[in-house]
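User:
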Amino acid sequence: MIIFDYVFWAMALAIIVLGVAVGLQAVNLARLRETARRDVQRLFEQMDLTLGELRDVSVSLEGGLAAIGELRLRQQQGTRAEPPSPSATRSYDIALRLARNGASREELMSNCGMSRHEAELAVRLHGPAKPGPREAANRR
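Assistant: Predicted structure:
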């Protein structure tokens, strides 16, 4: 009879443990379902935001395409941009020649009618090369 009591209590304990395990699984499944529901809700909200942004981009694209169409129409109608005048090209040639000969930015601005940025660029690109810090140290 004692063996029967041990078997009975072992089976009862196993049933209780299984019941608790099933209960815990049910609670975890409920939590998982709630988390999945929240994640799906966030996903739908993000999709709505993305669709709104996509609509905005589509509207912008339509506006850009309309502007491109207008530009093509103007180009076909003959309102093309005119090439630069020969005097402007000649002025730049003179400015570059002056820069090669060592003219300063101010001289290019006053003599050739260049903006400050244009004159700086011409002096940097076409002016005489200035010795770097290493070359200046070697000369001493």
